[in-house]
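It would be a great kindness if you could assist me with a short task in structural biology. The full record is reproduced below for your convenience:
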Amino acid sequence: MSDSRMKILEMLSEGKITADEASSLLEKVSTAENVTDASVEKNETDRTLPRYLRVVVDSADGDKVNVKVPMSLIKTGIKLSALIPADAADAVKDQGIDLAVLRDLPTDELVEALRELEVNVDSADGDTVRVFTE
């Protein structure tokens, strides 16, 4: 039981407030706790969902690539794949890429799946490639 609830019940038992006042205060405390709990749950969920897809490349020759793609852009790109003309989609499909799969892909599930994504490549030449979400 929260401290606020205990204080309200103590005031009621000491006769400092009426039962109606105690009931009203307990309702307000309960509402405030529910709002706080909901905002904490939302913030925890927001923190765990990846916001960016990162690609980092360091070559042995000194070339460096650091790409940070917002997940919202990826979601939009998936939705925009539905706007590709049929003949262009057919030409891409002839090359082995079926864009229709993207159109039907649930974007929230994709973002959830990408949370676990981590690709680490270290080549014999000294090149490194990292792909991950943050």
About this structure: The longest helix spans residues 19-48. The mean pLDDT is 80. The CA atoms of residues 121 and 129 lie 5 Å apart.
